[in-house]
Specification:
Length: 752
């Protein structure tokens, strides 16, 4: 258990002890100048600093040249003094090593004998590349520590701000590097955070995937050698998510110890995990830079993206902490309000747009309960395919001779909000913008940039480019009173330069700034992050956006694992989840309407289908699920997410429970045929043990289940009442379900 961290893993906190420090006083100043100076500077400072959350504590030991994390885990109930802490830091020193212990501190450096990835790699022309940082100053204000490090010889200063949120138990680390010298300093690597791993953390879980299959979890052992998960796609990426879990071998949804780490950044990054020869292990993350990409001028400061982390018991506890933190500190305020039901035009019409078809689609969407209509790609000049038009952000008069006004007015007549699709960062070579400003694209002189989806990437960090995009978008938002923007980004950044130098690290910051400028100008405007689906999902972009188009794949069977992976770090209410066509456009798989609707109810509910062709039964079915969403959405925006353990890997189950514990919706999806004839019982989570709940089948698909059940569990037809304790321990008996079907279970607190 983490409460035994000091006893079980002394080597993880193998920092210089008091005895070692005093012994160093006898070594000549020429041999140990930095340590002697550090002792003098730190003689009147505390031996440790402590941050406490609701259930977690963080101890920062001040016994070393640079402070080190001595404890991160369960909240420490007893007081800790310096002598007590020193006893636990007195780790062994083996032969065939350096003569002093190499510390794994918050800013590790090679000059101390540390053999892992240093926190800083860089150089100044005609100067040594080695660094020797020591503590200059530490200040604590409440649950915030500001640690100032300096390297006098290299003329550099580092500031790390470490905070522990007292409500969610999520820690944040922000790292800045100041060039105090008179010449440029070139940065090759600057870690946002370096965290020690307990010895019993043997596994890591990372999230990988591809377009249409994001957020797939991969578990591997942490052995000798470095695991380096690096992203070079210029956006958060389908292939790797900026999330990492390190854990004990017994980790499950409810049990085991886990460290969740997320980097709030929408660009290139690297996560590094390594177990060193002495047994210590660490996790490090930061922006992955190109050669010469970051040059810090004299007096300038380079600030890293924030790293977020928590350590807890079981996947669910850590997930719930991240959700709580995001809701408090990351997401826009409008995400705390009930979310409207979307209807999107893309898979219904693609580029084949005209006023009549769009108005008919709006009418049909309103019939099944839509409250916001989003006009997707295809509304601007030359946009009959994805090979032309991007960058020319004006309404195509050939398609819409009277502009968008007739359509917008028709949408408003149904009391629906109006949203519009943009892809601001991109440009087609076949566009007026590119013909006028070919120099505006990211490129390297003399090298042809590969196209993707027939498009190139604009250098948004250029002021003229950003101003152009702002003026185009802002004028349309004003003209049509646009409520919502679906902000897309459909390609990776390849050769992202300004002609000579790399620019990939400038792009995310420039995009954030452009979004924020639009929000400041139009305070009621809401923005969705879309990037070929879920390729831009992180806390960096979510500060400006409040919804993510989770994946271009809305096949509910594929969405089962996609959405489960998404919800591991991000609150489900920001997850765009739509009911698609019977035959999924991305996979060709056919699924019934109930399954599609039940999986869509896991996030922000909506439609990605041609509602004009629905028959009467389909309309009735969808109306049932839209009413369910509307009935419960007042609490869904703050619901507590539970991934449920299942008896078979073919069953995916999760639940959303209100913060009051009065309401809960659980979805259970069967991916394929079970090997057993009966599915057994499913245990639920998050209910109050001593309270009584009425359990009922919320999905309206009992008629579809009937043919597969000789005897149906009684609760499926008539609700039953049971205690939360029995529901969570014994569970509810599942009906026999055909492959690729789902059910929705509702638990309501029984009022006497």
């Amino acid at each position: 258990m983490l409460s035994c961290f000091f006893k079980l893993t002394p080597i993880v906190i193998s920092f210089y002890t008091f005895g070692t420090l005093f012994h160093c006083l006898y070594i000549s100043a020429n041999q140990r100048p930095s340590i002697k100076a550090t002792i003098t500077r730190m003689s009147n400072t505390p031996a440790y600093y402590r941050l406490d959350g609701a259930a977690s504590s963080l101890l920062l030991s001040n016994h070393t040249q640079v402070p080190a994390v001595a404890w991160l885990g369960d909240r420490l109930e007893a007081d800790v003094d310096g002598a007590m802490l020193a006893n636990h830091e007195d780790s062994a020193l083996a032969f065939a090593n350096l003569d002093a212990r190499a510390p794994l501190d918050i800013f590790p450096q090679l000059s101390t004998g540390y053999m892992g990835s240093p926190a800083l790699a860089g150089y100044r022309q005609n100067a040594p590349v080695a660094h020797s940082f020591s503590t200059k100053h530490i200040e604590q204000t409440g649950q915030l520590l500001v640690v100032v490090l300096e390297d006098v010889k290299s003329q550099l200063e580092v500031v790390q701000k470490i905070a522990l949120d007292s409500k969610s138990d999520v820690c944040t680390v922000s790292t800045s590097l100041k060039n105090a010298g008179s010449t440029d300093y070139r940065v090759d690597w600057l870690a946002s955070a370096t965290l020690p791993l307990p010895n019993h953390f043997s596994d890591c879980i990372s999230q990988h995937g591809r377009w249409g299959l994001e957020n797939q979890s991969y578990r591997r052992a942490i052995g000798p050698g470095r695991i380096d998960i690096s992203n070079q796609h210029g956006r958060t990426g389908h292939e790797h998510g900026p999330n990492l879990i390190c854990a004990s071998a017994d980790l499950s949804v409810d049990h085991g110890d886990a460290l969740f780490v997320h980097l709030g950044w929408s660009g290139n990054y690297s996560f590094r995990i390594e177990r060193l020869h002495d047994g210590t292990a660490y996790l490090q993350c930061g922006v992955l830079l190109g050669p010469g990409e970051e040059v810090v001028a004299p007096g300038a400061v380079l600030t890293c993206p924030t790293a977020y982390f928590t350590i807890g018991h079981g996947l669910n506890q850590c997930t719930q902490r991240f959700h709580s933190f995001a809701r408090q500190h990351i997401l826009p305020a409008w995400t705390r309000t009930p979310r409207p039901i979307h209807a999107n035009s893309w898979e219904a019409l693609y580029f084949d747009l005209n006023d009549n078809d769009l108005k008919a689609l709006v009418d049909a969407a309103a019939t099944i309960g839509a409250e916001r209509f989003v006009l997707d790609d295809g509304w601007f000049p030359a946009r009959r395919t994805d090979e032309a038009g991007l960058g020319d952000w004006t309404v195509d008069k050939h398609v819409f001779p009277h502009g968008l006004t007739p359509l917008v007015e028709h949408v408003r007549s149904h009391n629906m909000q109006f949203g519009l699709w943009f892809e601001p960062e991109m440009v087609n070579p076949d566009s007026d913008l590119f013909r006028k400003h070919p120099e505006w694209v990211l490129h390297y002189a003399g090298i042809e940039t590969p196209l993707a989806r027939g498009q190139l990437v604009l250098d948004v960090a250029r002021e003229d480019v950003s101003n152009y995009l702002f003026n185009c978008i802002s004028s349309l938002v004003s003209e049509y009173s646009i409520d919502y923007i679906k902000w897309d980004m459909n390609r990776d950044l390849v050769l992202p330069g300004d002609g000579l130098s790399p620019r990939s690290s400038k792009q995310p910051q420039a995009v954030y700034a452009l979004m924020q400028r639009l929000i400041d100008t139009h305070p009621t405007l809401q923005i969705e992050s879309c990037s070929s689906g879920g390729a831009r999902t992180d806390f960096g972009v979510l500060k400006q956006t409040g919804r993510v188009w989770t994946s271009d794949n809305i096949d509910p069977i594929a969405r089962g694992t996609i959405q489960q992976g998404f919800a591991r770090f991000f609150p489900p209410e920001v997850m765009g989840a739509h009911v698609g066509h019977k035959e999924a456009h991305l996979t060709g798989r056919s699924t019934n309407l109930h399954t599609r609707a039940i999986i869509a109810l896991q996030g922000q509910f909506g439609f990605e289908l041609d509602a004009r062709v629905l028959n009467k039964d389909d309309v009735t079915t969808l109306h049932h699920y839209t009413q369910l969403y509307k009935q419960h959405r007042s609490w869904l925006s703050n619901a507590i997410y539970w991934q449920l353990p299942t008896s078979d890997n073919l069953l995916l189950a999760s639940g959303l429970v209100s913060t009051s514990g009065e309401d809960a919706l659980f979805s259970i999806l069967l991916l394929d045929s079970l090997k057993t004839t009966r599915p057994g019982c499913q245990r639920l989570r998050g209910l109050a043990k001593t309270q009584r709940y009425r359990v009922s089948l919320a999905s309206s698909n009992i008629d579809q289940l009937d043919p597969f059940n000789k005897a149906m569990p009684a609760w499926c037809r008539n609700s039953i009442v049971s205690s939360g304790e029995l529901i969570m321990n014994i569970g509810i008996p599942l009906p026999v379900m055909p492959p690729q079907s789902a059910i929705l279970v509702y638990c309501a607190l029984e009022v006497n």
